Amino acid sequence: MGDRKQARDGEFQSFMIGRWPRLMRTAFLLTGEQHAAEDLVQSTLEKAFVAWRRVGSADDPEAYVRRVMINLHARRHRRRLKEFLAPRDDSGLVREIADTGDRIAQADDRRALLTALAQLPARQREAVVLRYWEDLTETQAAEAMGCSVGTVKSNAAKGITKLRAIPGLAETVTQGGRK
């Protein structure tokens, strides 16, 4: 019995180490703050560890854990939604610790993008992050968000439209693409 527990603990540890950077990036994009992202990932992995027997035997453990993260994020901010989505001043947005292999980290004006992303409603932000940063299919994003594919399409389209309407962000993207 002890050997099985050790094997399961080792399997979870391997999973956690391998997925930590990607989970942190997703959490940061959802929360907009480094410390909040760390808390969200830790809480998510805590729940995953407790249920690792079920999570580890799932068809796609990473998708399972991502769904747990999104549900935790939604629950934490459901009551404080207006305060959470309010635009932050320059001192209110904590910078992410850059991942050197992350192409997004190489963008010229990352702060403008993160500030714009923080202004989106939670569901639109989730759809945009999962579809465009995590590069999930619409079906995978729908499973992670617990909604229909049509809802993902709608929220992603609305979120992208709002991001494109932000003048400073549109200029940054245009300048960055023509260098």
What tags apply to this protein structure?
single chain; 179 residues; mainly alpha; Butyryl-CoA Dehydrogenase, subunit A, domain 3; 10 helices; elongated; disordered C terminus
Cα end-to-end separation: 60 Å
The main β sheet shows up as: none
What structural class results from the helix and strand content? mainly alpha
Q: At the first level of CATH, what is the class?
A: Mainly Alpha
**Helical amount:** over 70%
Shape: elongated
- Ranges where pLDDT stays below 50 over 5 or more residues in a row are 81-89, 91-99, 174-179
Organism: Streptomyces bungoensis
GO biological process, one term: DNA-templated transcription initiation
GO molecular function: DNA binding; sigma factor activity
Keywords: DNA-binding, Sigma factor, Transcription, Transcription regulation
Overview of this structure, please?
Residues 21-80 form the RNA polymerase sigma-70 region domain. Pfam families: Sigma70_r2 (PF04542), Sigma70_r4_2 (PF08281). The protein has 179 residues and is mostly helical. The chain has ten helices and no strands. The model is unreliable at 81-89, 91-99 and 174-179 (pLDDT under 50).
